Amino acid sequence: MSTPEREPFDDERVGTRYRAEVEAAYRKVAAAAAPDAQPQLSRGVLSGYEWALGRAAAAPVTGITGGAPDLGLLTAEVDAVTVQLEDAVQRGVPDDYARGMYDALSWICGQNDQRP
Question: What confidence category does residue 5 fall into, taking pLDDT thresholds of 50, 70 and 90?
Answer without folding.
Answer: very low
